[in-house]
Amino acid sequence: MAQILFFSLGHSRRRGLSYLHDAATLRQFQMKTILLIDDDEICRRPAAEALRRANWEVIEAVDGNQGVELAIQHRPDVILCDLLMPRSNGFHVCRKVREHPEIKNTRIIVISGRDFPSDRQSALEAGADDFLVKPVELAQLHEALAKTTSMRGETKPAMAQATAPSAKPVSDQTTVVKFWGVRGSIPTPGQSTVFFGGNTSCVEVRADGEIIILDAGSGIRPLGEALAAEFHEQPIEITLLITHTHWDHIQGFPFFLPAYDARNRVHILGYEGARAGLAATLAGQMESPYFPIALKQMPGNIVIEEIKEMTFNVGKVRVEACFSNHPGVCVGYKLYTSSGTIVYLPDNESFNKDTAQAHGGALPRNLEKNIAEFIHEADVLILDAQYTAEEYQAHVGWGHGCVDDVVQIALNNHVKRLFLFHHDPAHDDRCISNVLMRAREIAQKAGGGLRVDAAREGEQFVLGPRAVNAM
């Protein structure tokens, strides 16, 4: 009996029926069994009922990991897989299926509420046979199912890393935040960027006895030199949180000095990349002929862990993650420290009518809602504000923020302090100063006391102690 395995219709709050406009059309397919996997019950149940009314036998599951297990058990002919899911995203599902000898020839269709060209390309390279944008019309689904597919090669498993204990000689009295890289896309050294800085994304947070580094852009190189000088021969324990594996967020790691000291432990956490696992991606940029030292040759105790849950702890610091509106699997991090909350969302496009049009009219409302809740009442918000309002019109759908929208979302969600981040490589110090003045003007007119700054390389600030941690 032919089967279809139906993965998550997504985090979208659209009713499941909107994906199945004409249940009778489904009867033309000879496939009788559907496994519907969706962590959103509001979306899953209506879709399941519509399928049952069309005489399908429907099996429901609640996450991608369970879906992969059921794919192995039932060996379906087709997998429909949502792109953004906690625990196991669409790229991960594609790779797992292609790695398994018994189901590697299964047809896979990735479905997304976003239409980034790079997402489409990454899905195909991860092993998908087609990519559809929600809401999916039955004609599209029928055409996709009719396509023939080719054999896919297997991907390499993530490399294992050694572990070793190390010390963390860090004060836990206050929370200190320092910017080491604030630029987006590519480093921009030179006289015109001296004030705000030209290194790509890297922020250091010291809180509750932990050293937490947010992203490993080129700014991590001077940070590593500073840490080596500060701690000298003392061992250091460092946690590096990667938002995503675009080059400007990982390119500095091969030059991170503490990773070359066997006394140190560097724990790298992140979510799976679009085309390869986190470890494979980090190792790839250090392969010959790109770099003379391979990742596995770095003397430091480097532990790479792909996170499945959206909430975890780094020592006493609770961390939450949230998917952002940016190509590929990209998240932001929220740190709950004893002194306050810090939200780091370096790559994100705010939602507006232009955004909806860029994504085929399918505005992922749940993503917008999740981000709003994620940044609500943050003590510090470090947010992508790459474009001016005029520039944004030529960059709609690129996955980066417009300063006017960024200030407004901070105001709407009662953020206390906003740092404009991910400065465009074409923006010199004068341009960023003008962007900052524009942002402050918007905030001042709105009232409410929002403090706005432009992130500046080398800038450091302290959050005051707070009696009760935000929950």
Summarize the structure.
The protein is an alpha/beta fold. The chain has helices at 23-26, 41-53, 64-74, 90-99, 117-126, 138-146, 220-231, 278-284, 353-358, 365-375, 389-392, 403-412, 429-446; strands at 3-6, 33-37, 57-61, 78-82, 107-112, 130-133, 175-181, 202-207, 210-214, 237-242, 265-270, 301-306, 311-314, 317-323, 331-337, 340-345, 380-384, 417-421, 451-454, 460-463. The protein has a seven-stranded mixed sheet with strand order 12-11-10-9-8-7-20. It has a seven-stranded mixed sheet with strand order 13-14-15-16-17-18-19.
What coarse outline follows from CA principal-axis ratios? globular
Helix content: 25-40%
Radius of gyration: 23 Å
CA-to-CA gap between the ends? 50 Å
Notable traits:
20 strands; alpha/beta; disordered C terminus
Commentary on this structure:
Helix content is 27%, strand content 23%. The protein is an alpha/beta fold. The strands form three sheets. A seven-stranded mixed sheet has the order 12-11-10-9-8-7-20. Mean pLDDT is 83; it is low at 6-19, 148-167 and 467-471.
